[in-house]
Specification:
With 681 residues, the chain is of the alpha+beta class. The chain has 3 domains: 239 residues, no CATH class; 176 residues, no CATH class; 142 residues, no CATH class. It has 13 helices and 37 strands. Its EC number is 1.4.3.20. This is L-lysine 6-oxidase. One of its GO terms (molecular function) is L-lysine 6-oxidase activity.
């Protein structure tokens, strides 16, 4: 008997609701599912938040399949038991400071952290293993069972590591989540509650000493035993705990499934008829429905979370994109000519397509696609200013442009399980600076044992004896430990989520991103206003309050485009109020995406107040008072929030119970945002 476990890399997401959860989508761009407290699926999600306005944790179900495609559960004849073991960890505090692309070994061994002299987070800690949040593994079996990753459920004899239970700022991290089994014995992995805390003031969006958060990742193990004496079958997978997906129906143009497919195609002969031992087949026939249309569809939805007007031309059917005829070839090739190619790794001047903003034709200019920042528009080392699609995406678009494609809706899928693609397909794949859920280590084939399969470094018996290693780089080979996929991400994650939205990018000098000024490092002028990953971190959204009561709370009419994070005015505030953000969702779903109307919903307006500021108050010219500027900010008088409505009272009760300790800012200040501006219009 052959069994398989899917998804091979699951993705659960943080939330702070005490008693309500949902389940991860089973399709790229799909919505989560509501679930009961045992992880049993109820149906399509209705609300992302509970009655208090707290976000439901999103659990990742894991399922076992037989070789005939049927699912195996505890209700399957001859199955005696299914035991699950999951080992989550958070290594952020023990890892190096995030330094854009420095440390990325795809740029060669001379780009290692050590050779690049990258400092550790918490550089003065003597016992670096103690910086890891390592609760040890948790095992669960049977139906409708539960176990947590708190100290109370720690396995006997394991060298557990937890952060301090008392912190000066924020909220201490005491658990990384929970495991559930549903009514058929399936595993559901739940992450943490969005807690973050430390003992020193915040100094940077990327990471501050003494701080921990409850992001994590790690292996999932499964042992199936049988009644008839059939030998036990052992399976494994991986799970990532990410931040909430606030716009789940909008997908990144190059998502993490695209990244894993690209790694598989170029390094594992996943599709040998396309790419064999790293050599592309120029005669390979792409399929418009499978390979090209999804890119166009992803581009089309960016407009709901960002002002990307130039991108919309590439979704407007200015010609028949699906027509493979020679007479249409010029149109297809002109279309592709607006997509920049990849830089080499490391880049080889003067061929630096990702440092080029415009396609030029005489005096005509047009920004090249995709209209996103690249993986390093921030520092002056390993510069990658603007995004390009991954190599497999660009190859397939090239085949399409040259007429080597068919338009067949009944296509053969690539040899990737649909559940594997769906789980990671809702994560950021590009750019990676650092990203949202994970970063550029997922581009390195060394960390995989097979396409979409993370190679594991050691087994649980070894970890039980030795614990986890704080400074080993999985990109040197040998596999991954718990916590390795997320250790490069910002700590706390909320700070980076606030900062990584837009970027001012110099577009005239390929060798410089920023220059030093008395105010700090700023982007070299002239610059272009670019976005990072708006599907994951929205920026420009349509307000979706359609009742008089709702509009009185949000102070904005329905349909007006506003800044998504309005009212949260620093990354320090984001650490406390991240759950106040709204969810962006399609309110016209019955058209199956043909006529989307994607708006902001479920924003906790009770936490904010609003003021129309006359321009004359700034200019000292009374004539300017005929124009006002809308200003949103956190309501500091808690009794005013509680008095607004029942939800406001519940939110205040939550804040009291949470006992969040106000965060101080370092005396030297936070410096300029990495974007180069504090303007969040």
């Amino acid at each position: 008997m052959t069994l398989s476990l899917h998804p091979s890399v699951g993705v659960a997401r943080l939330g702070n609701s005490k008693d309500q959860i949902c389940l991860s989508p089973d399709a790229i761009g799909g919505l989560p599912y509501d679930a009961d407290n045992n992880g049993n699926l109820i149906g399509p999600i209705n609300e992302f938040k509970d009655a208090t306005g707290l976000i439901k944790r999103q659990g990742q179900p894991f399922k076992i399949y037989q070789d005939n495609g049927e699912e195996l559960t505890l209700d399957t004849p001859n199955v005696a038991s299914i035991e699950w073991t999951v080992h989550l960890a958070n290594k952020k505090a023990a890892w190096y400071q995030y330094s854009e692309l420095q440390g990325n070994l795809l740029y060669g061994p001379d780009n290692s952290y050590a050779i690049q002299n990258i400092a550790f987070r918490n550089p003065h800690a003597e016992n670096r293993q103690s910086l890891i949040v390592d609760p040890g593994p948790r095992s669960i079996s049977g139906k409708q069972q539960a176990i947590s990753f708190s100290k109370a459920d720690a396995p006997t004899g394991y060298p557990i590591q937890y952060p301090p239970e008392t912190v000066t700022y924020g909220v201490a991290v005491t658990t990384l989540g929970d495991l559930l089994t549903d009514n058929q014995g399936r595993l559901v992995v739940l992450g943490g509650f969005g807690n973050a805390g430390g003992n020193e003031p915040l100094t940077s969006y990327g990471g501050s000493s003494t701080w921990h958060d409850d992001i994590s990742d790690g292996p999932v193990y499964c042992t199936v035993t049988f009644n008839d004496g059939t030998p036990d079958i052992n399976l494994s997978a991986w799970v990532i705990i990410g931040s909430p997906d606030f716009a789940p129906e909008i997908v990144n143009i190059s998502n993490l499934s695209d990244t894993m497919l690209d790694v598989g195609v170029r390094n594992f002969n996943l599709v040998p008829e396309m790419c064999n031992n790293g050599v592309w087949n120029d005669c390979y026939m792409a399929n418009y429905q499978r390979d090209i249309l999804p890119i166009i569809q992803k581009i089309s939805r960016y407009q709901w979370v960002a002002n990307v007007q130039p991108m919309m031309a590439f979704t407007s059917n200015i010609f028949d994109f699906s027509d493979p005829s020679d007479s249409n070839k010029v149109n297809r090739q002109n279309y592709l000519a607006y997509f920049r190619q990849n830089d080499a790794q490391p880049p080889v001047p003067p061929n630096l397509p990702q440092e080029q903003l415009f396609k030029e034709n005489g005096s005509d200019i047009f920004p090249m696609m995709p209209l996103n920042s690249g993986s390093n528009s921030v520092s002056n080392i390993n510069i990658m200013k603007f995004m390009a699609l991954d190599e497999t995406q660009l190859f397939l678009m090239g085949q399409w442009a040259n007429g080597c494609f068919v338009n067949d809706p009944n296509y053969t899928s690539y040899p990737v399980n649909s559940a594997d693609a769906a789980s990671v397909g809702n994560c950021v794949g590009l750019p990676m600076c650092p990203g949202i859920e994970v970063t550029w280590n997922l581009q390195n084939p060394v960390i995989y044992s097979a396409p979409y399969v993370i190679e594991q470094y050691q087994g649980e018996s070894w970890y039980s004896q030795n614990g986890l290693t704080p400074s080993r780089d999985e990109c040197e080979g040998g596999g991954c430990e718990p916590g390795d996929l997320t250790k490069r991400m910002a700590c706390p994650w909320q700070a980076d989520f606030f900062q990584c939205t837009v970027q001012y990018i110099n577009f005239t000098d390929p060798s410089i991103n920023k220059i030093k000024t008395p105010k700090g490092s700023v982007p070299l002028p002239p610059t272009y206003y670019s976005y990072w990953w708006p599907p994951q971190s929205p920026w420009d959204v349509l307000v979706g309050e359609f009742s008089a009561k709702g509009q009185a709370a949000t102070h904005v009419p329905a349909g007006q485009q506003m800044n998504y994070a309005r009212g949260i005015n620093s990354f320090v505030q984001m650490v406390e109020y991240w759950y106040a953000l709204g969810f962006i969702r399609d309110k016209n779903v019955t058209t199956k995406g043909m006529y989307p109307f994607i708006v902001e919903t479920e924003r906790n307006n009770e936490l904010f107040t609003y003021k129309d500021v006359p321009v004359g108050q700034i200019s000292a010219n009374d004539e300017d008072n005929e124009t006002t500027i809308p200003v949103f900010f956190i309501e500091s008088c808690k009794h005013k929030v509680a008095a607004k409505n029942e939800k406001g009272a519940l939110l205040m009760r939550h804040l009291e119970e949470k006992a969040f300790k106000a965060i101080d800012i370092h005396p030297d200040g936070l410096g300029l945002p990495r974007s180069g501006t504090r303007n969040r219009r």
